[in-house]
Amino acid sequence: MVVKREMEIEITSEGKVSIHVKGVAGKECLEFSRFLEEALGEVIEQEVTSEYYMEETPVTETDTLKRRYQ
Question: Residue 65 gets which letter from DSSP?
Fold first, then answer.
């Protein structure tokens, strides 16, 4: 089964950036967006969704390669 993982990024006219991770369960969502958060600077506020409390989906080698090259 292929799991669709995505990030929704919103940039306001004031320059504030919001990142919403979808399709990534558990603490893996924090790792999924970490590279972008580090590039943007200081995180002012963080809110987790119900997906954060769900069981994490194991990542296979195929998933990693797909994520790396998409």
Answer: H
